Amino acid sequence: MLERAEKERTRYEAGRDDESMKRTAAAMEQSRRVAQLSEQRHLQRFFSGLKRFVQTMTLSCRASLGVVAIVVTSGLARADGGEPSTQGILDARRYEVAGFPIVGGNSDIGVQFGGAATFTKFYDGAFPYLWNIDLLLSGSVKDDQNGFRLVQQSHVLRLDAPDLWSGRLRVDSRASFQRTINEGYFGLGNATTAVLAPGAAGARQYQYLQEESRIRTIARFHTGTPVDIALGGIVRFESPDAYPGSKLAEDLTGSGPSQSQPFSVQGGEAAFLAGVAAGIMIDTRDSEFVTRSGIFYQVGAGVTAGSAEQIAYGNASAVLSHYAPLGGPFVFASRFVASFEFGRVPFYDLAQGGTFEPQYLLGSESGVRGVPDGRYAGAVKMIANTELRATPFPRFVLFRQRLRIGTTTFFDAGRVWSGYSLISGADGTSLGLKYGVGGGLFLQWGEAAIFRVEAAYSPDAESANPGFPLGIYVSDGLMF
């Protein structure tokens, strides 16, 4: 009996121990689960915090990138032309008025005075403006043995309306009067000299009196592409006067050394001339005022007839301008011009080129700078202009007018051929390039008004001003 009681006590204690072990195991399992749950919550809190951190950093990065973008954009806007963008600042419907005085002169023309002014209306999306009016009035007075008189005059009135016919037509009209007592004529060809001959008419040997009245119109029909159809018309009255004993007087009368030339010279009589032209213009310029990128091509042909000396001739030309930004405020600009004339061409047109807008090419502020007006003339003319332009200074306001100063550094070169012969004594046997190099400043007043002052060195400059190998030019607008 005692043995059975001992066995029952042993089974009781074993059961209690087993129950205790189960409770301990359950407690350990619960503790493990609590620890696991705590770890999971800790990880959740960690990753939740990490997620918020990443989100915060992402927002911060986005904000930082936005600030950087704004700074970069602002920097680029300022670098583009050296000024902040004016979009949103200028009134889209506004008028701009600008003016610039002209003061100068020399012993030939006396004291020169005058002024240039421009009046422009901007209106919404009309590009580059709704209309523009330019006016140039200039004259000189001199007191000499002939008394006190008006010696030289230059007057120009230009109206440009680029937004006609709902933006499909642009009409550019210009009326001008020019009287120049010292216009240059040195003969025809690339090998003409400028040495005074014994007994010559002094400083007048290579000069003549030019008087011209001109009205010209250019109509550009927009095709919806960069290519425009261009039509032009010019009516003018020419009244040149050769000084006795001058080179022009010799060539017109057929006397003197010019008789060895295989061509005749005409244009000495006063005459009315009328011309028409047609061609295309390709324009991708970002601006017509201070261009930074794009091209502007003018290719055309025309005919002209005169009322005297059976003047009648044809012409063809290509004017190819290119613009490329170099970074910051710098722009590289270049232009190539080729002009061909055939028929009975008056001598004063042989110094000019361009179908729609004839300009002096081998000389003056519109051609090879530094070379005097009329220094070289011929039926074929080719020139190249290269410029490094810069607008390194920001715009400033003076008397409530927005102004900007820019610089130009340039090299020009060109050549003429008296005719279409491969070899001609009038043109020489060498390459014979004529060149000019120099620089200057320009003032942009508002958007549309630009005035420039430039100086150019050329070995040919002394042809007009002995002992002074520089050409000084004051003009409106950039050269091209």
Describe this structure in words.
The protein is an alpha+beta fold and 480 residues long. It folds into two domains: 79 residues; 384 residues, membrane protein fhac: a member of the omp85/tpsb transporter family (Porin, Beta Barrel), CATH 2.40.160.50. It contains two helices and 20 strands. It has an 18-stranded antiparallel sheet that branches. A two-stranded antiparallel ribbon has the order 13-14. Strand 6 and strand 7 form a beta hairpin. The longest helix has 78 residues. The radius of gyration is 40 Å and the shape is globular. The N terminus is likely disordered.
List keywords for this structure.
2 domains; Porin; two-stranded antiparallel sheet; 480 residues
Query: Which term fits the overall shape?
Result: globular
Low-confidence stretches: 1-10, 12-17, 34-88
What is the number of domains? 2
* Secondary-structure class: alpha+beta
Strand runs, count? 20
Give the CATH superfamily of the largest domain.
membrane protein fhac: a member of the omp85/tpsb transporter family
Average pLDDT number: 82
Write the layout of secondary structure elements.
Layout: H1 2-79, E1 93-106, E2 110-123, E3 131-144, E4 147-164, E5 169-184, E6 207-222, E7 227-238, E8 241-242, H2 247-253, E9 271-283, E10 294-306, E11 312-327, E12 330-344, E13 352-353, E14 359-360, E15 380-390, E16 396-398, E17 401-417, E18 434-445, E19 449-457, E20 470-476
Antiparallel strand pairs: 1-2, 2-3, 3-4, 4-5, 5-6, 6-7, 6-8, 7-9, 9-10, 10-11, 11-12, 12-15, 13-14, 15-17, 16-17, 17-18, 18-19, 19-20
